[in-house]
Amino acid sequence: MDRDLVAEYLDRYAETQGVLPERLDAFGERYREQGYLTREQLYEIASESSTRSAYHVESNPGERCRTVTGNVLAVDDDFSKIQLLSGLRGFKAPTASCVLTALDPSRHAVVDTRVWATLDRFDYLDGRKESFDAADYVAMIGPIREIAARTGFSPAEVGYALFAYDAEHREGTLH
């Protein structure tokens, strides 16, 4: 995926039903200021990502939410960050990727089945996938960072462009 293609689909992202980058930016600002996220803030992020499963977030103890999101700040490894967040109810890898992207869009991207499909279409990954874990996030973020480095866009922007590309080019249903 070249710079022009990323730019084109990044512009088209606003036409999709994807997570709103400005909302994630606001959550990221609060996250960095506080050093953690509250259960209520996590619920809002989860609602942005997956309204169907967001209600599960409310069953997490508030202290656990603050502790886990605080611990994420102390860990460097992408796998470990996603694994920590996935330990909270309502947070599988795609929703956890929203938290990481909010925290640091220069290192992370929101990922899901559309992003995977586009990476597969451009031969960065092999095969279709419907559910994701921490290892799958690592598999996706590598090529996303590679594209970002080559094109001058952030990993977050590349992720949004990959999402928009699939939204326009997918034939058939999403699942």
**Poorly predicted parts:** none
User: Could you report the average pLDDT, rounded to the nearest whole number?
Assistant: 94
Shape: globular
Counting DSSP E segments of at least 2 residues, the number of strands comes to 0
Based on helices, strands and strand pairing, what is the structural class? mainly alpha
Main β-sheet: number of strands, strand sense, barrel status?
A: none
Write down the Rg: 15 Å
Tell me the distance between the termini.
Answer: 24 Å
Strand fraction equals under 5%
Number of H- or I-type helical stretches: 9
Helix content: 55-70%
N-to-C SSE string, H for helix and E for strand: HHHHHHHHH
Label this structure with key terms.
single chain, 175 residues, mainly alpha, 9 helices
Describe this structure in words.
- The protein has 175 residues and is mainly α.
- The protein is 63% helix and 0% strand.
- The protein contains nine helices and no strands.
- The protein has helices spanning 3-12, 21-34, 39-49, 62-74, 78-86, 93-103, 113-121, 134-151, 155-169.
- Helix 5 packs across helix 6, helix 7 packs across helix 9 (155-169) and helix 8 crosses helix 9.
- The protein is globular.
- The chain starts with a helix and ends in a 6-residue tail after the last helix.
- The mean pLDDT is 94.
